[in-house]
Each structure stands twice: as structure tokens, then as C-alpha cells.
């Protein structure tokens, strides 16, 4: 058990994910709560993907991006939560080196892709509200596919760079990861050499994938707010605010929690707060996304009722 590695040796067998070991009374409770949230995440995001595909009225850029967001959330949670549940139940709390590497590469790629995708969704809302006459021309299917492909490409690129640089660090026998997931910031803390370069690279990546997208989103919604205030109809303003508020809610929760984790120094002492904050963007946010987008969206609720109605008819026939 554990990891065996010297400065010049890479015979690694595994890590110990300490997770919430300091709170043994909470671990079984967390296991039940996280399991329920994970099942709700699978159900909610799968539903979004299915109705976006099955309902012709939802074949629009907004739901194209939303279905990709749901797919990202499904993959991201599945790369993190199963191992987290095992460690909450198993007192050994081990993860193989290969498992840690896979989790590091996959979760970082998916998380980075989502950061870019949320910015693209804000651009879609900007065009829909501020330039409605040009919406179908600007946001045509090929362009939407290109934007989504760029989001995925950026996520894959950053994980190939960040994860590879992090795994090149010597850990000198340090195998206890004071977290519940293999992430770049926590693995940098294990290194037994100067990590100034890695921290600088992490900071630059955080600027590119956190600050830049958030700034883009704020600018987009600044223009949207100006356009909404010009709408004379109170009903029209309410409809637009209802459509955009769901996206803003997701953005605040997702970016806020990730910024807390990635923009602090690798030597930060806020380890316990970091663990609980990480639960938000790994467990809570992926579960909330379908609820936020559906409960405040009449189109999605109507499409869901229509699809369920068709299923009932098929069953009775």
C-alpha cells in the first residue's frame, strides 16, 4: 500500500487519498448523500441529453450546448465520484498510480472544457437577445459544432500540459494526498523540489480557463442587461431574465468554487475548506445543472411531458 518512489526512481504503486479522514463521523453520512446526488446527476443529465435529441423544438443552439454540458457533467462526475464513494467506505483509501493518473488527466480535461463551454453558452445568449435578427445566421449548426470542438480541444490540450508537468515532479516517497481527488494543486504539494514553475504554469492556466471566461461572460451579460432594460414589456423582460438567470446561477456556483481551489497558492493552508469547496464543483454543481435549467424553463418541462407522454402511449400499445 502506498507509493514507493525516491527522487530518481519511479516505481510507483499508488497513493492514499486521505479525503475526509479527519471527520470519521461524517464519512458514512457523506457516502449516502454523495451516492444520492450522483444518482440524481445521472438521471437529470441523461434526461437533458435525451429530450434535447428527441424533441425537435429543442434542436436549437442553446440546447445543443446544454446537452454537451450535461454530457460533460456525466463524464466528469463518473471520473471522480465512484472512487470517492469507495474511499469513503473503505478505511484503506488507496488509489493505484494508474487510477490517479487517469483521474487527473480526465477530470482536468473535462473541467477545463466546461469552463470554455459555459463562456460559449453566454455568447449564444448574447446573440439571441442582442442580435435576434442575425441569430440563425450567426449560430448555425456548423458554427456551433466548431465552437464546441474548440472547447473540447482546449480542455484536452491543457490537461496534456498541466498533468504531464505535474507527474514529472519527484514526490520522494510522499504518498498521502490530502484530498479526495487527484488534482494538480494537491499533487504539487507532494513534490519535494521547488515547484515555482509548476505553480506559475497553474496560475497562467487558471487565468486562461477561469478569469478569461468569467470576464467574457460578464461582458456578454452586461450587453444583455442593457438590451433587457430597453424592453418595454414587463412580461418580455421577465421571460429574458428567466432564461438567463439559470445560466448565471450555474456560472456563479461553478466558477466561484473552482477559483477558490485553483487561484490560491499551492502552499495554502486552507486544506479543509478546499475539500468541501471541491465537493461543490465535483458533486453538487453537476447535479444542480439539470434542475436549474429545467425548473426555470417551460420549453424543457413541456418537452419532457411530451416525451413521457409518447413513452406511455407506446407502453399501452
TrEMBL record:
Keywords noted in UniProt: Cell membrane, G-protein coupled receptor, Membrane, Olfaction, Receptor, Sensory transduction, Transducer, Transmembrane, Transmembrane helix
Localization of this protein: Cell membrane
Membrane topology: Multi-pass membrane protein
Top-level taxon of the source organism: Eukaryota
GO MF terms, alphabetically ordered: G protein-coupled receptor activity; olfactory receptor activity
Listed SUPFAM superfamilies: Family A G protein-coupled receptor-like
Keyword Cell membrane tagged: yes
Keyword Isomerase annotated: no
Chain ranges of the G-protein coupled receptors family 1 profile domain: 44-293
Family designation: Belongs to the G-protein coupled receptor 1 family.
Job description of the protein: Putative odorant or sperm cell receptor.
Protein name: Olfactory receptor
Amino acid at each position: 500500500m502506498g507509493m514507493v518512489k525516491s527522487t530518481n526512481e519511479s516505481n510507483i504503486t499508488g497513493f492514499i487519498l486521505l479525503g475526509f479522514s479527519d471527520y470519521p463521523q461524517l464519512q458514512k453520512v457523506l457516502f449516502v448523500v454523495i451516492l444520492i446526488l450522483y444518482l440524481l446527476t445521472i438521471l437529470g443529465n441523461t434526461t437533458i441529453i435525451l429530450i434535447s435529441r428527441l424533441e425537435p423544438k429543442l434542436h436549437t443552439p442553446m440546447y445543443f450546448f446544454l446537452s454537451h454540458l450535461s454530457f460533460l457533467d456525466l463524464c466528469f462526475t463518473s471520473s471522480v465520484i465512484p472512487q470517492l464513494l469507495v474511499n469513503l467506505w473503505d478505511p484503506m483509501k488507496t488509489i493505484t498510480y494508474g487510477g490517479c493518473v487517469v483521474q487527473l488527466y480526465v477530470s482536468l480535461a473535462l473541467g477545463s472544457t466546461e469552463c470554455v463551454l459555459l463562456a460559449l453558452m453566454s455568447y449564444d445568449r448574447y446573440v439571441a437577445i442582442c442580435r435576434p435578427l442575425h441569430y440563425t445566421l450567426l449560430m448555425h449548426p456548423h458554427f456551433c459544432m466548431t465552437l464546441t470542438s474548440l472547447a473540447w480541444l482546449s480542455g484536452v490540450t491543457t490537461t496534456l500540459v498541466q498533468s504531464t508537468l505535474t507527474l514529472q515532479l519527484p514526490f520522494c516517497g510522499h504518498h498521502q494526498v490530502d484530498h479526495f481527488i487527484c488534482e494538480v494543486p494537491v499533487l504539487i504539494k507532494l513534490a519535494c523540489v521547488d515547484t515555482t514553475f509548476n505553480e506559475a504554469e497553474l496560475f497562467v492556466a487558471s487565468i486562461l480557463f477561469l478569469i478569461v471566461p468569467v470576464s467574457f461572460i460578464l461582458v456578454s451579460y452586461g450587453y444583455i442587461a442593457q438590451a433587457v432594460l430597453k424592453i418595454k414589456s414587463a412580461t418580455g423582460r421577465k421571460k429574458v431574465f428567466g432564461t438567463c438567470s439559470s445560466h448565471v446561477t450555474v456560472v456563479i456556483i461553478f466558477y466561484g468554487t473552482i477559483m477558490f481551489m485553483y487561484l490560491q497558492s499551492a502552499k495554502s493552508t486552507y486544506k479543509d475548506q478546499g475539500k468541501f469547496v471541491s465537493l461543490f464543483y465535483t458533486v453538487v454543481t453537476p447535479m444542480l445543472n439539470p434542475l436549474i435549467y429545467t425548473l426555470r424553463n417551460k420549453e424543457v418541462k413541456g418537452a419532457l411531458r411530451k416525451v413521457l407522454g409518447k413513452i406511455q402511449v407506446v407502453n399501452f400499445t
